[in-house]
Amino acid sequence: MAANPLPETGLLRLNQIVGDPSNGIPPILPICKSTWWKGVKSGRFPQPVKLGPRTTAWRAVDIRGIAEQGYCR
User: Fold this and answer.
1) Which residues are CB-neighbours of 42 under 8 A, at least 6 positions away?
2) What is the pLDDT of residues 24-61, one digit of tens each?
3) Rounded CA gap, 13 and 61, in Å?
4) What span, in angstroms and rounded, lies between the C-alpha atoms of 50 and 29?
5) The three-state (H, E, C) secondary structure of the chain, written as one string
6) pTM score
7) Is 39 contained in some domain?
8) Which residue, 20, 30, 1, 17, is CA-closest to 61?
9) Domain count, the chain
């Protein structure tokens, strides 16, 4: 499976960050959704940007920082 390209700027949805095998989306950070949300709640991961009542995203620059720190490696 090819790596999920991480954009320089913009916003990412959760399935882009942790991947979605059923839709062929590889993870940027290989962790499960529940671990991601626990990390957001504890402050380990960045807070999301609410785009609507059922739409949440994260800044690509924040996700890039986590990936470059080697969190999941």
Assistant:
1) none
2) 999 999 999 999 999 999 999 999 999 999 999 999 99
3) 13
4) 21
5) CCCCCCCCCCEECHHHHHCEHHHCECCCCCCCHHHHHHHHHHCCCCCCEEEECCEEEEEHHHHHHHHHHCCCC
6) 0.85
7) yes
8) 17
9) 1
